[in-house]
Amino acid sequence: MDFTESYLRVKKSLEAYADLKIELLPDDTSTAELAAQALGTEPGQIAKTLCFVADGEPVLVVACGDRKIDTKKLARIVGAKKVRMASAELVHEVTGFFPGGVCPFALIKEIPVYLDRSLCSYDITYIAAGTPYSALPIAAMRLEEITSGCWVEVTK
């Protein structure tokens, strides 16, 4: 798989934020556990970006990598009857990223972004930057600023 386009899209979106720098890594960072190993940190400090389908509409949730998303809580918050994980195909179609490299901004379609309060447990978390070999260290409030995300509590 070629991640050049998605990586460049994220990199371009960061041009307005000179203090934010993508880290390219030789090791796979497509899961919180792998990213934590590659970065020498704990899985909780890895911010996973997951795509769900809420009554047919895609939504993104960003949460600490050591947490599980409670889809019942998410359904209540977004006012949906049914919430399920999006397929890999749908994730790519609506975000422009493949699972394991989903960045919560620089999306190809406008999708609501929900930021779980677990992200505030760390001064810095690492989000994917368009590839399964990249990470972007970012503070929770900066992530909110860039994504215009809504703070929620949807983890177990």
UniProtKB/TrEMBL annotation:
GO terms for molecular function: aminoacyl-tRNA deacylase activity. It comes from the Bacteria. Residues 28-139 form the YbaK/aminoacyl-tRNA synthetase-associated domain. It holds the Pfam family tRNA_edit. This is YbaK/EbsC family protein. The lineage of its organism: Bacteria, Bacillati, Bacillota, Negativicutes, Acidaminococcales.
